[in-house]
Structure formats: structure tokens, C-alpha cells
Design goal:
Length: 266
């Protein structure tokens, strides 16, 4: 009975948190659209902060993933069938649709997202957020909205960066197998489409929205001193990853259902 009770409480708390995050999302969007807009300086600061923290880890991770998984492994497999010239078309599926958005989301959540949670969590346990409320300062408009907009913009831009680096990993893998780049580019452009590109950009931008809401919520609800902030950071990363994976499945399946032509490898 105790085990069942603990399981029930855990599920109930998780669902309550999801509901509160949805409410925070609605408040954040409304606050971002509704004047005044006093968060310009904070938005620029958060954008530059995330850019400084994430660009190098993203470079290493994207090139490594692009060269390793869809590059060397796919090339090894394609060589068995004499179809290594199809690697370019595979990179449209692997890099543009999946790897680049996922790696971008993982790096942004693990680096910038944790920093946001730790920052807001430290303010929470020092009662700074309560002090802002007493002074009549809207914490959502002044703290959450700039981080929300900054992470959405930075993940969308980083996705373009990740796409270029991921494809460069495929180019290196092709050269390692002593194959010409002509067939790689021919199959790449035959299979790439505008739908793939805008789908990847929109998906990654919304990944940034999910990460920012989760990290801001966990930071602003942290309790229990420094240990509580550490727990909030760990929980924020896990929940952000779950949210990104779940949203990616729904978004990708919807995109493929509405644009079946992009599933055909040419």
C-alpha cells in the first residue's frame, strides 16, 4: 500500500508541475505580447550569455555526432551494398531532421538551461523574488520573458550552426572513405527540401521555449537552500529532455503526415 501511495503521489506531483508549467507558458506569452517592454537589456544579456556558454560545446558535439553516427557508421553500412553515394540523402534525414535539432536542444538545456535554473533558484532561496513582488515588479515580465525569448532565438540560430557543422561531419566521413563529394551533394540536394529546413528551424525554436519554461519554473519554485537548488537543476534537465523528446515525436509525426513527399529518399 505504501508503494502504491508513493507512486500515486509521485504521478500527482508530476502532473501538477506540468499543469503549472503550462500556466507559466500562457502567462509568459501574454506578458511578452502585452506592453510595456522593459526587458530589452536583460534579453540581450541573456542572449549573449547563452551564446558565450554554448557555441563551443555545440561545435564539438555536432561535428562528433555528424562524423560518428550518420557519417562513419552509415558509410560502413552503405559500403556493404555499394551505395555510399546515398550518404548525402541520408544526412537530410539524420542531420537536418533529427541530429542537429536534438544536439542543439541537449547542449542548450545542459549548459544555458542549468545556468538559468541555478540563477533563479539562488534568487528564490535568498527571497529576492518575494522582494520583487513586494516592490510591485512583475517577475514573469522582467525575469522569465527575456530568458524565454533569448533561448527561443538562440536555439533557432544554433540549429543553423549545427546543420552546417553536422553536414561538415558527413563531408569528412565521405573523404575518409576516399569517395568523391559530387554524389554526396547530388543526393543531399535531391532529398533536401524547404519543408525540411523550416520544420527543423521551427522545431528547434520551440525546443528553446520548452527548455526555458521548464528551467525558469524549476528555478523559481526551488526550496531547501543550496541543496534544493541543486535538485532543481537536475530535475530541470531531466524534465526538459523529456519535454523535448515528446514534442519532437509529435511534431515530426505531424510534419510527416502532412507532407508525405519528404519521406521518399531519392
Amino acid at each position: 500500500m505504501n508503494l502504491a501511495s508513493r507512486a500515486y503521489e509521485g504521478v500527482r506531483e508530476f502532473l501538477v508541475e506540468i499543469g503549472e508549467m503550462v500556466i507559466l507558458t500562457g502567462k509568459t506569452v501574454m506578458s511578452a505580447l502585452k506592453p510595456p517592454y522593459p526587458y530589452g537589456g536583460e534579453f540581450v544579456q541573456q542572449f549573449l550569455f547563452a551564446l558565450k556558454l554554448c557555441w563551443f560545446p555545440l561545435l564539438i558535439a555536432t561535428v562528433a555526432f555528424g562524423y560518428g553516427a550518420p557519417g562513419l557508421q552509415a558509410a560502413n553500412f552503405a559500403t556493404l551494398f555499394g551505395a555510399i553515394d546515398r550518404i548525402g540523402g541520408f544526412f537530410v534525414l539524420a542531420s537536418i531532421r533529427e541530429f542537429a535539432p536534438f544536439v542543439t536542444a541537449i547542449v542548450v538545456a545542459g549548459v544555458a538551461g542549468t545556468a538559468i535554473t541555478a540563477d533563479l533558484g539562488a534568487r528564490k532561496i535568498r527571497d529576492e523574488l518575494d522582494a520583487l513582488a513586494v516592490l510591485g515588479v512583475d517577475a514573469i515580465k522582467n525575469l522569465v520573458v527575456p530568458r524565454f525569448l533569448a533561448l527561443m532565438l538562440i536555439t533557432g540560430l544554433f540549429n543553423v550552426y549545427a546543420l552546417m557543422l553536422g553536414v561538415s561531419g558527413g563531408i569528412v566521413a565521405t573523404l575518409v572513405f576516399s569517395e568523391p563529394l559530387g554524389p554526396f551533394w547530388a543526393t543531399f540536394f535531391n532529398n533536401a527540401s524547404v519543408t525540411d529546413l523550416w520544420g527543423s528551424l521551427i522545431k528547434t525554436t520551440l525546443f528553446g521555449a520548452i527548455i526555458s519554461i521548464v528551467c525558469c519554473y524549476k528555478g523559481m519554485s526551488a526550496k531547501g537552500g543550496a541543496e534544493g537548488v541543486g535538485r532543481a537543476v537536475n530535475q530541470a534537465v531531466v524534465i526538459a529532455f523529456i519535454g523535448v523528446f515528446a514534442f519532437n515525436y509529435i511534431f515530426t509525426q505531424t510534419l510527416l503526415a502532412t507532407h508525405p513527399e519528404i519521406t521518399q529518399i531519392r
